[in-house]
Amino acid sequence: MGKSDIEIAVLRHRKARIRELRHRQLLHTADVSPPEAINYMAQGIYTVATEGNIGAFNALILAQGRAVSVLTEITPQGNTILHLAAVYAECGKTEVVKYILRKEEYANLINQKDHTGNTPLHLATVFWYPMIVHILTKDERVNVGEENKLGFTALDAAEECMDLNPTFRERLTWMALVCVGTPRALKLMPYDSFLAPVPQEGIIQSNEMPSAKKYKDRVNTLLLLAILVATVAFSAGFSVTKVPEGEKHWYKPVALQVFVVSNTIAMYSSVLTTVALIWAQLGDLVLILNVFKVALPLLGIALIFMSFAFLAGMFVVVGNQLWLHVLLLASGGIFLGMLVLLVVPFVCPYTSKPSLFRYVWRYPFWLLLMLIVRDDNDDDLE
Fold first, then answer.
1. Which of 57, 61, 71, 111 is deepest in the core (most CB within 10 A)?
2. Where are the annotated coiled coils located (predicted)?
3. Is residue 74 part of a domain?
4. What are the distances in angstroms from CA 272 to CA 285, 301, 303?
5. Cα distance between residue 109 and residue 209, in whole Å
6. Domain annotation covers residue 372
C-alpha cells in the first residue's frame, strides 16, 4: 500500500511540507464537517506515533490549530495518539509518549479510554512494551487501577494474555506493573480476544495449570549452586585463620575481620538456601514458588558475601607489594559492582507489599529494562 503525501512528509521530517499539505487539504475540504477534517489527520498522526518524531508531531499540531481535539478519536476504535504511541512504540521510540506526559494540555489523554475501555496502559501491557508501561506507571496521574469494559485492570490483562511459559519481555511488563502496586480487579469477566493481539492461551482462561515439573531443573540448578557455595565457604573458613606474622599494616586485621564476617554470612545463607530447596524437591507447585521467594534472596546474599570474603582474604595473605594491593582493590571493586548488577535484579522480591520496598526494587528492574531497550536497538540496526 502506497503512502500518502502527508505520511511521506512525516517520515522525511519535513515540517514545511506538512504545513503546506495540511493547508492545501483544508482549502479543498472547506465544506467538510470538523470531525471529518480532523480524521484526515489520522494518517499523519498515525505515522508520527509509529515513528516517534517530535518535530513532525509539533508541525502537525501547529498546522491543525486544534491541539487536543486532533489527537482524540483518531481511529474508528476511539484510539487517541497516546493509544497509538503506546501500541507502536517499537525499537525504543518512546518520545511521543514522554512528550505527551510532559504537556499539561494533553493530561486528559493519559487515562482516556477507547471504545473497548482500554487505556494506553492497557494497550502497552497487552502488546508487551515494558518500557512504555514503566514510563506510564511512573507518572502519578496515570490510574493504574483503571478497568476496561471486561473489568480488567492492566495487571489482569497482563496475566490473562501471558503464556504459561512467559518470555522475558512478558515478565518485565508484569514486573513493571507489580513494582508500582497495580491492583487486580475483584471480579474478572470472561476473556475477550481483543485483549490479545494474537490468538493464544492465557493463564486465566486455560484449563492447563502450570506444572511443577518445569521447575524441577531450576530447583536442581539452584540446589547445586547453593551446595557449591557452602562447600567453598566452609573450606575457606579454615584456610585464613590469622594475619601472617611480621605484618604491621593496620588494614590486615581489618581485612581478616571482614573475611570472617563475610564468609560466615555466605556459609549460613547457602546452607539455608540448600535446606529450603530440599523442601522444594517435594514437588508441590505452591511450595516451590514460596521457596523461591526465600531461596533466591538468600542465594544472592551468599554469592555476594562469598566474593567479599575472597577479596578480604586475598588482602590478608598477599605480601607488601603496593601494586598488588591496588590491582586487587581495582579488580575486586569492578567485579563486585558487576556481580551486584547481575545478581540483584535476579533475586529481588518485586512483589513486596510495603511501598518502600517496591520503590527500592524499581532500580534493579530498571537495569533489566535496559537489556530490552538494548535488544530493541540492536534489532533495529540489523
1. 71
2. none
3. no
4. 20, 11, 13
5. 38
6. no
Q: Which residue has the cell 508501561?
A: 133
pLDDT tens, residue by residue, 136-157: 888 888 888 888 888 888 888 8
The separation between CA 376 and the C-alpha centre of its own chain, rounded to angstroms, equals: 13
Q: Which residues span the domain enclosing 302?
A: 212-347
CA angle 149, 97, 350 (to 5 degrees): 70
**Residue (of 306, 307, 280) closest to 293 by Cα position:** 280
239, part of any domain:
yes
pLDDT in tens, 271-289: 999 999 998 888 777 788 7
Which residues have a Cβ under 8 Å from the Cβ of 336 and sit 6 or more positions away?
A: 304, 307, 308, 311
State how far the Cα of 42 lies from the Cα of 80, in Å rounded to an integer.
Answer: 10
Q: Which of 77, 80, 161, 168 is nearest to 125 (CA)?
A: 161
Residue 377 contacts residue 92 (beta carbons within 8 Å) = yes
How many Cβ atoms from other residues are within 10 Å of residue 26's Cβ? 15
∠ at Cα 52 (47, 54), nearest 5°? 105
Asked whether residue 371 is domain-assigned, the answer is: no
For the chain, what is the domain count? 1
Segment 365-374 long-range contacts (CB within 8 Å, at least 24 positions apart): 365/134, 365/172, 365/175, 365/176, 365/179, 366/134, 367/341, 368/172, 368/175, 369/130, 369/131, 369/134, 369/172, 369/176, 371/168, 372/130, 372/131, 372/168, 372/169, 372/172, 373/92, 373/131
Task: Say which amino acid occupies 224.
Answer: L
Please report where in the chains the cell 534472596 appears, as a residue: 297
C-alpha cell of 349? 522480591
Which pLDDT does position 358 carry in this prediction? 57
